[in-house]
Amino acid sequence: MKTKTAYSYIRFSSNEQESGDSIRRQTELCQKYCDNHNLKLVEDQKFYDYGISAFHDLHAKQGNLSVFLQLCLQDKIPKGSYLLVESLDRLSRNKLSLAQSLINSILDSGVNIVTLSNSKVYSQQSQNDISTAIEIMLELYRANQESELKSLRIGKAWSNKRNKAREGVIFTKRCPEWLEVINGQFQPIPERVKVIELIFQLASQGYGKQKIKTVLNEKGIKPFKHIMNKKPVLSWGASSVQKVLCNRSLIGEYQPYKNINGKKRQVDGEPIPDYYPKVISEELFFLINSRTKNPVKGSQVKISNLFSGLIKCHYCGASYNYINKGKWQYLICYNGIKGGGHCSYRSIPYKDFENDFFQFIHDLKVEKIVSPDKSILTDQQKLISLQGMLSDKQKAIDNLLITFSSHKDKEIQASLQRTIESTSSDISELKIEIENILERLRSTKQFEKSVTDSIDKIRQNSSSGDYESRLLLRTAIRDLISKIVVYWVKEVPLYLVVYKNGNHSIISKSSTMLEIMPDILKLVETI
After folding, report:
1. Among this protein's residues, is 249 annotated catalytic?
2. How many domains does the chain have?
3. How many whole angstroms separate alpha carbon 362 and alpha carbon 144?
């Protein structure tokens, strides 16, 4: 009898497993099965994917498994051959329909699949056997649910780590290139801090990034090993200098990020102050970053407009520009300045606006912003509802699987399978929505503290005109407020202050408030 051929496929999802027992175990299982079943293992065509997850079938699109699948489609793998895998989840952990499609594509090509963990053989004929079809479906469904749960747990673990970072706990050794972790603490690297100090010293003297780059390279100062890049760089570039100058980690800030759907990187909450040791003073950092892109040596720095980019026109969406006419300063809609019918030219005396804003903040109650927050109550109610829906969906899946196993009619099975897939998708969406709500609820206390700190800074510095105080004011205002929208009611400006959490307040001069109150009430109804 002719000896049939067998091909091994080995996969594991983490690089750490390469140095562990995974490769040895799967290799030994392949050889042992071939010896016991008179199969010839093809030694010069071994297929493996190391450090690749099967949750999104990346290995089947770009990895070695994709090569094997192509060979099957091209009839270059002899029919009747065997593909040896530790278990079906080595081939796919994707959602049920896609995982089944991958398995069926292999079986349809005439290649048998052997799961070495239980010596089970799946063939083209197995697709017509109801008990085997259910067995495959349940195994693939279990694998997908395990991976999804693991993904959620990992996401939650990182979320907890980021929350601990807000309490000052160092949760990773990854840090800016001028720091290192020693005995669980961030420590500056002296020689690199000196380079940073030189860069800021040159910038404070009026040198631009091109000139700073030239000075560093002429002095033979090497760039940091991986500064803003994954690969080492041999010389300083203008962009490298710029990235150092605007890196807020220099003043101790850490901005957490999170991945969305395992791919897109998104800001996760407010920056964490004092997480890293400061290597540059805030005054010097903001002084340099408040200047133009091409600083002029000896130029005077002044913060005239505390609200740059925050004040928006309700009617056209453009920003209100700060116009300095010497003795008088105004805020005017950008489209109003341009003319051409885009928006009316109506000016707001800047000093009046600033005074009105400071008076508003002086009288503001913190509770107006952070409590009572209807959205929090809504989230809490929604969380209870979603958890109940999740429980119902999970029970429904169990019942559907039992019903599926009791029917032999293929049309009924196909209908049930579609329902199972749809319900599984609903469960995944519910889990993500529940995690998002929990994350919002956890961030509430952090936001309350941020609001209180910002208001205190504004109140303490509102009467000062020096640079440092104006700098603190500008930062605190941006920490507190998302935007300020300008409305005009009977030629009187009215300001809708939108806070970072979406709550809002209205600012209007008290002398005109009674006169325009009916219009204000109509306006509020539309917000």
Report:
1. no
2. 4
3. 55
